[in-house]
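Render this sequence as a predicted structure.
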Amino acid sequence: MKLKMGISPCPNDTFIFHALLHRLIDTGLFEFEVTFADVQRLNEGAQAGDFDVVKISFGNLWNVQDTYGLLYSGGAMGYGCGPLLLSAKSNLLDPDIPVGVPGKNTTANTLLRFWAERKGVTFEVEYACFDELYRDLLKGERVQSLVIHENRFTYEADGLYLICDLGEYWEHKTGAPIPLGGIVVRRELGSDVAKRVDELIRQSVEFAWKNPEKSTAFIREHAQETEKSVVSSHIAMYVNDFSAHMGDRGERAVRRLQQLIAPEFAGVNTCFAYDY
């Protein structure tokens, strides 16, 4: 069975899925045809039904849950790994200047609104690709933006200012890990296929932990930032026990986010592809 898969080119995804995509684990009858794209394009692809298995923002989960069910493995979730609200000018938000955001349905945008509502601040937002937002900050073509992925490790050296660590704010207010991105599978494939794909992803993560050198070239081939220490920091931050299986704490984080952005589905156990 050939499955169309969409993931990001970021080091955490290429680290997790390298063994699966290169059949370094026994994938049985499954083959995966992969597409690499930034998070917003993956979100839009899921909404269009373009993939069988795809990484999406948790902030987009309830827009696609009729078509896709959430898996327990392969996602990005944890502590101290949330999006940063940065400025090229100071540590304060200027409400008269638009904030760059890497996509309407991203978890980063949800966390920004979560912070802004509780701080009582309002501002306009402008959407753009995440790497474009960071480049514009460095070039002085944009004043304030949300930053995700590996640029959280470089902003201080690049002379940018931190307005708020939105992940830290989420953790402080909820006590839950930050649910950034998850893997979903097309529901019509059935729960048996969903379970098998979930198990393969878990095996791929475990293979990567045991054999980190095998995925190095693949990760560097696709990464935006290829400096070794940045790539290593990125993987260490975003690939953790939640990536192998989100467990009860991960489920609670997803449901907490659900209460915020899709309260009409709170209490309805439909976002997962199967019960474990």
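Summary. The mean pLDDT is 91. The two ends are 23 Å apart (CA to CA).
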